[in-house]
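Batch manifest line 509
LIGAND: xanthosine-5'-monophosphate
JOB: complex structure
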Amino acid sequence: MQKFLILDFGGQYAQLIARRVRECGVYCELRPGGVSAAEIRAFAPIGILLSGGPHSVYAPDAPDVDPELFSLGLPVLGICYGCQLMAQKLGGAVVPARADGAREYGRTETDFDTDCTLFRGLPERSVTWMSHGDYLSALPEGFRAVARSAACPSAAICDEARGFYGLQFHPEVRHTEQGTALLRRFLFDICGATGDWSIADFRTRTVAELRERIGERRVLLALSGGVDSAVCAALLAEAVGERLCCVFVDHGLLRKGEGDAVEAAFAGRDLRFVRVDARGRFLRALQRIASPERKRKIIGAEFIRVFEEESRKLGTVEVLAQGTIYPDVIESGGGAAAVIKSHHNVGGLPEQLRFRELVEPLRALFKDEVRALGRELGLPEALVDRQPFPGPGLAIRIIGPVTADKLETLREADAIFRAELEGAGLRPDQYFAVLTNLRSVGVMGDGRSYDRAVALRAVQTEDFMTADWTRLPHALLDRVSTRIVNEVPGVNRVLYDITSKPPATVEYE
Ligand code: XMP
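JOB STATUS: finished
ARTIFACT:
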């Protein structure tokens, strides 16, 4: 299988680029911008893309690239920061644009030279998405400008002889009309991609690899009821059959009715299924813990301990499986982007753990690829298409310490919100209730109340790296608010969150 490499300079779009490349049928991975040429050689990609990033190439702390990268004989496409970095390394000059100069943000009419391979067969003028405060004041030797906008004379540059291309605009965002066509030109016509990456092949290959790797050993998998672990279970079941034991840890942090639904979904399937009631244990471990990151760590550690105990009961189980997916790997520090949250399902195994080996068969997949794999494996649509739910569950949707009462309150409010949304046929990408730590005064009948505020969150997003709040109908919000305040004891105020990500995150903790 061919591989393509994306070097990440901390741009918010690096993951999106990777998804676009895979949508073109080309397998790719993200690596930090500064990886060595030796590492790149070992990865053996068919081409390299240098992502955008928030820095200026002339800033003292600007992320750098191994200059040997340009001597590997591989095609290189630089986007925005990546383009400027390439130009600078090869002898060009990058300068800050004056506010009235070549600085551009947003949709921009751009002219392409269609005699350049990158733009061959594309319209001569189309809209691109720009976001840059610097521009190229001098091109490196061998380069020419092959696209221009009103403000920017070198919106794209190339040195076709060496296979080097640079774009000031972002081909990966949908606003760039010819973005995908452009990426395809680079991948197929310049790098020689054949489009040999598909989910069906991934399934066949991964099943064979898992069989080989696991052999006769038994595997223990944590089943959470979410998409990732369910797909992981189906994949492993195909590979090792009854040697797979799925343990569903009911940590008591699930949504209303979810524990039973998970059990029902897997009952009657060809898997060994064990449900462990660990509700009390998690509550005790979380007592008085207010810090979000500590909650995550405690829940992660407790999870591992429960599995360990279960595995002991099951005899020798040497392999632990987890449904970690690629965005978890990247967000936990796999790339140059800042570590925003540590996800409990990544980070390796604690030393005391008795498992010999950890398998994470979905580690290379993006969420939409995991869903596609789930369908490929014949999982029910309701499970495959489920909205994401974080591993630490409702614990990170209760601001401050978790208690049984708060969990009960949140579960009821959340169930009302979800039922009303689904009843209205609405389906934001993620939607849930949060129990805030705000108490406020209200009037109920003739009395004064001093109760909790519930926040409702609903977002539209393509990749969960950025998200916009959903414009829900006021009538629906009204109904939800009335129902929650009337039906859920201890809540006297309902708030609707109108913050996007960034600057807020999707979850509250
Ligand atoms: P944030 O809050 O980072 O959420 O904007 C982005 C997506 O990630 C989910 N999320 C988590 N998932 N463990 C998980 O398995 C976690 O600790 C965690 N934190 C956030 C969140 O629900 C959203 O879909």
